[in-house]
Design goal:
Length: 605
């Protein structure tokens, strides 16, 4: 059943790819090498094998056709930022917001870690393309991994398999991505259900050579290397070099009752609402939202009209399960009805999945994500970062242009975070540079998407703090340069939103489907149909302009949602200044000017 390396020559004649695969085989010493063709038969074969090894469960075929369930190791449940490194030649190029090790030191460690690490395992070679096949936006990567779980997830999340190699010309570069769970097996030794090696965990990026090495974790962004590692950390470096943007953004299409359509991109930190907004089901009659992508956007200026166009480099959703329900996000619930991989959710007695917030009547008996029998009312039956991996093509609100090689033209960029106070529901920046400042000064409360202190407020510029592959000060400058290149007339308008403002521990804004009301205001504002109130922080809607028809919300609550506490913003500006100061001479002068101007507006206006 296993293809051997002889086959390689029939699939590609790219000399550096052939050499690299052989080199990694020598280094990692797998039992065999398998080239992934990306077919459904292959996917099923891998699933069957994992099932026979006790690594997964088949879900109820009637309720979740073609779906499977994994439980990870309890120490391998989220991205691990402390084990993630940017190994640029100079420390300054990684900047103060990234962990850095010199390429030499990291390579020495990696050579030791990877040497012999695949003994007793199969080495899978996974060719993949981020972005539509053949598009000028797209980048080809090849992930080598010893995890069949990774292969199955990559097949859903990317354009994966043999056909990708047809697009890789002989002289062309690919991005090499090496992954191992980091647990070699002795001859005849039985494997554990979820192999991982947390004490040696290391996710290393080499921006100078554009390569990725990940050791010791099998989970999410640590292991599916096309996603955060390639499409954000390495791509952000390429984007700076090639004058485009690689961003942690959803992309949606919004159509008005008159049939006018626009596309918006929005950056929120991990577990702050991208998937939900991208698949929003509108509560306003006549308004429609369609989904292009839910996590990553690559944006470029068009040669034809000079405007900014975006593609979603992914082909699936790796979404947060807890909190997802028919009430909050029916489109996602439909998407994950079949052919979906669930990880770390709870398992019901009839082999269906369950998570917190899924329904008002949780099953009486279930098995939690750790594999323990649980009972009604048990806290965290699913892990807070439990996820589904599901094909984008199953999304009922998928946009017709989701796979368009030219991308979609972006009219608005939206920044947001999880802020229980200070930040209003929505406001607009004065211009691109001020919008860049809004992105740069975004802060958000920490979520379970990464290991860390839950709820702690941290600066997360552009929702990219964990994902920018170079000095963030230079990244701000890149945004300003993009603005100069585009010109105010061609550029999207920039907005800020916050769904999470609270009073007495409850959300002031209903969120989810009701967020259409905010998107509608943005749409109308771009069209020039709405005035706004100029405030020290930006343009705020006139309260009567936010469509709250059919919504049970008091004027007092709306006023609270839009209230601006100048003192709180002055404190905020001190925090931003402190955060910015660590970038030293890499901080663009314009960012300092923006803080000064904000303070002047707050104290004088
Ligand atoms: P990543 O995949 O980690 O990048 O997350 P994401 O930004 O796609 O976040 P997602 O849409 O999965 O939402 C994360 C959590 O926030 C879920 O538990 C949602 O239920 C919750 N959430 C999303 N939108 C809203 C909203 O408008 N209001 C409130 N209160 N909660 C929301
Ligand atoms: C995020 O944390 O922003 C995610 C999940 O989208 S992961 O792929 O694990 O990075
Ligand atoms: Mn994300």
């Amino acid at each position: 059943m296993l293809l051997q390396e002889v086959c390689l020559d029939q699939w590609t004649s790219n000399p550096s790819l052939i050499t690299w695969i052989k080199e990694i085989q020598n280094l990692c010493q797998p039992d065999s090498v398998y080239l992934c063709d990306g077919s459904f038969a292959e996917y099923q074969m891998l699933i069957e094998r994992m099932a026979s090894e006790g690594k997964l469960y088949y879900l109820n075929e009637e309720k979740r056709s073609g779906s499977i369930y994994f439980r990870s190791d309890v120490d391998d449940v989220a991205r691990v930022e402390e084990d993630t490194f940017i190994c640029s030649k100079n420390k300054e190029d990684a900047g103060p917001t990234n962990n850095w090790k010199s390429p030499e030191e990291m390579q020495e460690k990696l050579q030791e870690y990877f040497s012999g690490c695949m003994r007793g395992r199969v080495m899978y070679v996974i060719p993949f393309c981020m972005g539509p096949l053949g598009s000028k936006f797209s980048k080809i990567g090849v992930e080598i991994s010893d995890s069949p779980y990774v292969v199955c997830n990559m097949r859903i999340m990317t354009r994966m398999g043999k056909e990708v190699l047809a697009y890789l010309k002989d002289e062309e570069k690919f991005i090499p991505c090496l992954h191992s769970v980091g647990v070699p097996l002795a001859y005849g030794e039985k494997d554990v259900p979820w192999p991982c090696n947390p004490s040696k965990r290391c996710i290393a990026h080499f921006p100078d050579t554009k390569s990725i090495f990940s050791f010791g974790s099998g989970y999410g962004g640590n292991a599916l290397l096309g996603k955060k590692c390639l499409a954000l950390r390495i791509a952000s470096v390429m984007a700076k070099e090639e004058m485009w943007l690689a961003e942690h953004m959803l992309i949606l299409g919004i159509t008005s009752p008159e049939g006018e359509k626009k596309y918006f991109a929005a950056a929120f930190p991990s577990a702050c609402g991208k998937t939900n907004l991208a698949m929003l089901r509108s509560t306003l009659p006549g308004w429609k939202i369609e989904c292009v992508g839910d996590d990553i956007a690559w944006l470029r200026f068009s040669q034809e009209d000079g405007k900014l166009y975006a593609v979603n480099p992914e082909a699936g959703f790796f979404g947060v399960a807890p909190g997802t329900s028919m009430e909050t996000n029916p489109n996602v619930m439909k998407t994950i009805e079949k052919n979906t991989i669930f990880t770390n959710v709870a398992l019901t007695d009839d082999n269906d999945v369950y998570w917190e917030g899924m329904s008002k009547n949780p099953p009486i008996n279930m098995t939690d994500w750790r594999g323990e029998r649980g009972f009604l009312g048990k806290k965290n039956a699913s892990h807070p970062n439990a996820r589904f991996t599901t094909p984008i093509t199953q999304c009922p609100s998928l946009d017709e242009k989701w796979n368009d090689p030219n991308g979609v033209c972006i009219s608005a960029i939206i920044f947001g975070g999880r802020r229980d106070d200070v930040v209003p529901l929505v406001f607009q920046s004065f211009d691109w540079d001020h919008g860049t400042f809004l992105g740069a000064s975004t802060s958000s409360q920490m979520t379970a998407a990464a290991q860390g202190e839950l709820g702690k407020l941290r600066q997360d510029p552009f929702a990219m703090k964990p994902f920018c592959g170079y000095n963030m000060g230079k990244y701000f400058d890149h945004w300003l340069r993009m603005g100069k290149k585009g010109g105010e007339k061609n550029l999207p308008k920039i907005f800020s939103v916050n769904w999470f403002r609270k009073e007495s521990d409850s959300f002031l804004w209903p969120g989810f489907g009701e967020n259409i009301r905010v998107l509608k205001w943005i749409f109308e504002r771009i069209n020039g149909d709405r005035d706004a109130e100029k405030t020290p922080i930006g343009y705020i809607p006139k309260i009567e302009d936010l469509d709250v028809n059919g919504l049970d919300i008091s004027k007092k609550t709306l006023e609270k949602l839009f209230s601006i506490d100048k003192n709180a913003y002055l404190i905020e500006s001190d925090e931003i200044e402190k955060f910015f100061s660590q970038f030293g001479s890499n901080l663009p002068y314009e960012m300092k000017r923006q803080i000064d101007n904000l303070r002047i507006r707050l104290t004088k206006e």
